[in-house]
Write a structure and sequence with these properties.
Helix content is 28%, strand content 38%.
């Protein structure tokens, strides 16, 4: 019996509330005296780090991880609106990242630390734990394959065909019509993270849901 080839894409998405929030901030000052700028930045950095260390507990939180870059120091000669070059301005800054497992404590700390002169909030990156992301990814891949099979059965049924057999499953873009696929690949899975960007006017601290999505391309023989 002649067979009809049905090629489809299967998709599935999980949407889950964020479980972690990583705050990015910069500590720094600028001014006419290099030593004073460096001293003030060093003192403020130590103050912020002290707060972070007091909250740091990798297994229980509220801070599960943090990092601090080395201080960057530089200078520039600004120009005024008359085209004249002004005296040298020195600047120093240190970038920190702080990951919270307690999102309520994250919001409270951001409100507190952002009020300090010399602190610039740069953003919050919302994520899932690695264990949750891995579990959802595997489930999304299985459901994407099931979705592909359901689609193929619908198309085959519309043609009056009842027997549907999988021929190939591949990552999107790898199932070429120009030739037979060489094997079976894993489905593509992506985790999109919500990000709140700091622009000096404040941060949006209500995280968006995290989307874990999977897609597969599949070919079926129907008869």
């Amino acid at each position: 019996m002649q067979q009809t080839v049905v090629t489809v894409e299967g998709r599935f998405e999980h949407h889950r509330p964020a479980e972690r929030g990583t705050v990015t901030l910069a500590v720094g000052f600028e001014g006419p005296a290099r030593d004073d700028v460096v001293r003030r930045t060093t003192e403020l950095h130590a103050r912020v780090v002290e707060q972070v260390r007091a909250m740091h507990a990798p297994s229980s939180g509220p801070v599960t991880w943090w990092s601090s870059d080395r201080m960057s120091v530089g200078s520039r000669r600004p120009w005024n609106n008359e085209g004249k070059q002004l005296p040298l301005v020195h600047h120093a800054a240190v970038r920190l990242e702080v990951k919270f497992s307690d999102l309520g404590r994250l919001a409270a700390w951001v409100e507190q630390v952002s009020a300090l002169d010399g602190v610039t909030m740069q953003g919050v990156r919302w994520t899932l734990t690695e264990a949750t992301r891995r579990t959802l990814t595997l489930d999304a891949r299985r459901r994407a394959v099931a979705d592909a099979l359901d689609r193929a059965r619908v198309y085959a049924g519309a043609l009056g065909l009842t027997d549907v057999r999988a021929v190939a499953v591949a990552e999107p873009g790898m199932l070429s019509d120009a030739g037979r696929p060489t094997g079976v690949g894993e489905s593509v899975a992506a985790a999109r993270t919500g990000k709140a960007a700091g622009d000096g006017a404040g941060l949006e601290l209500k995280p968006e849901d995290i989307t874990v999505a999977a897609a597969v391309h599949a070919r079926f023989a129907a008869s």
